Amino acid sequence: MQTTAPADHPASTAAAGPEEALALFDRLPAVELTELLGRWLGGSFATGHPLDGVLETFHWYGKAFRGPDDVDPLLFRTAGGAVVPLRATLLPDPRWLERWPWLGTAAAGNLFQRLALPLWITHHPQARLRVVKHRGVASAAMLYDHLPIVDVFRRLDEHTLLGVMDARGISQPFFFILRREGSDVASRS
User: Fold this and answer.
1) Domain of 106: which CATH number?
2) Residue 176: closest CA among 168, 184, 166, 185
3) What residues are paired with 155 via a beta bridge?
4) Which uninterrupted H or E stretch holds 56?
5) Residue 7 lies in a domain
6) Whole-prediction pTM
7) How confident is the model at residue 8 (pLDDT cuts 50, 70, 90)?
8) Distance CA 114, CA 9 (A)
9) How many domains does the chain have?
10) Would you tell me how many other CB atoms lie within 10 Å of the CB of residue 58?
């Protein structure tokens, strides 16, 4: 199931497929941990993954990195427009979308935003930053505290990162873009 990001989101950049996205990722330079500090707007990097666009449908905003042990990996926008950090204990499994395609719809995303999102707000970090060797290159990565997921980052330009989610049990990598909040690139999105 392929979904699209809302028009007002800093959204989806397309790749031809997972092999091309991996080739691009492998060509990009590594990211230093200090380069990640700050708040970032997130968007899908479409490769045909079942999760492409789903996080945006659920009003995903991005990530915040305050220090090596102080990370909000899941920032979402509330119905009132505030950006809040959520507990990172449950992420959509692509297999859910195959079984229940309605979970990837705008209606499901709006229901989540109004009913479930307020219950998941946290004031505690949910991830850490470390340097990880992935696909032969040591680069900044985010390790979730309570999920078997590592997000590894490479630099597209001075304000934009390409991330790949390495998750246990999901064979196809999920790619996403992060744009530094306040950068010209993010402001135009």
Assistant:
1) 2.40.128.580
2) 166
3) 161
4) helix 54-57
5) no
6) 0.83
7) very low
8) 19
9) 1
10) 23
Kindly state the helix (H) or strand (E) to which residue 188 belongs, with its residue range.
helix 184-188
* Confidence category of residue 5, pLDDT binned at 50, 70, 90: very low
183, two tokens: 């950068």
Q: Where in the sequence is the domain holding 146, given as residue range(s)?
A: 13-188
Residue in this structure with the two tokens 């195959």, named with its chain if needed = 98
CA 66 to chain centre: 17
Structure tokens at 179: 């744009």
Q: Give me the mean pLDDT over the 79-89 stretch.
A: 92
- The average confidence (pLDDT) of the chain is 85
- Residues 23 and 147: their CA atoms lie apart, in Å, by 26
- CA of residue 124 relative to chain centroid, distance: 19
Residue 157 lies in a domain: yes
Q: Which two tokens stand for residue 189?
A: 């999105």
In the numeric block, the tokens 């930053």 are attached to 129
Burial 82-120 (b: 16+ CB within 10 A, else e): ebbbbebeebbebeebeeeeebbeeebbeebbeeebeeb
- Coil, helix or strand at residue 137: strand
Q: Is residue 6 part of a domain?
A: no
Residue type at position 178: L
